[in-house]
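INFO  loader      accepted 1 record
INFO  loader      residues=220
INFO  predictor   begin
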Amino acid sequence: MGGTGVSATTGRTGAVVISRFGRSEQRVPYGRLVTVTRPRNAAQTRADILSAARRRFGAEGYERTTLRAVAADVGVDAALVFRYFGSKQDLFAAAADFEIDLPDLSSVEPDDVAGILLPRFFAVWEEDETFLALLRAAMTSPLAADALRNVFAQQVAPKLLTATPDNPVQRIGLMGAFVIGLAITRYVLVNPPVASLSREELSRWAAPVIKQLLIGPAPT
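INFO  predictor   done
INFO  writer      dumping tokens
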């Protein structure tokens, strides 16, 4: 009908058919089918798709997650997911993209290193759904495991390197094993003795381990 974004065609009366995004069709009395084009908020739709993808990848892993399932969670057509992100691998890469804000540790006192790192680890573990989705997906997907290793290698290892006095490869590798293992135990396996600890309690247990791994005396 003109430039209003509403068009009508002849049809039988019937039920209302509504989609969350795009067009909705409503059958109205007197045999007319009205099609209404609704404006789409592209930025919000993209954010909704990413959020749904993180939940799917985290719950079902990479292999079992489909673009169709992600689209259904959001209420859009799978073609729209493909248009925004391309392939499933591209969607996963976007959903797994996040940053860990770690400072340069070269001038930090040894006794303060753990106290600086742990709050930042907790922020990623408990306040960023991207990390946990990636962590869960890495349990079953080589692609997700590789993405997790890349995050550690590119964002975490260079900052930890500034604190290590010797044996950097061993120290950083063991630090990664400890941090990732702790996150899996607490948030994926939800092992009660670890999951039930408060941040403060866990920090008191973890801080000496972090200090030893990064800057403590190397074994002989």
